[in-house]
Amino acid sequence: MGSSRELWQSDFFGTLNDMPQEPVSAIAQVLEAMNTETAFRQARKALLQKLAFASPKRILEVECGTGIALKDMEGIPPSGTEIVGLDPTRLFIDMAQERAKKKGLVTLNTKWGRKANTI
Length: 119
Prior knowledge:
alpha/beta, three-stranded parallel beta sheet, 3 strands
């Protein structure tokens, strides 16, 4: 089996699974810090509201990272909508799953690596 870069045919983020845990955790913390920026969150929430979800059964969030958008999605898609998070980095997916669990979101499914092709 090839490296993450070969599997994803991607840029830097597709290679994080091949890196030691420490730098990947540092990158995750940068993503988490972005979620503390008020303007960033307001812009994301405005964009989500403009999408005007009707009655989706499933929402796919590509490059979901650590799941920071989950808080801003609250109340926008109808209750019971499945949210699928897709990201090439295992650590980010683990963090997104933990975030969803703490929020009581049992409908978050996450995929990483080649398994993501099964969506």
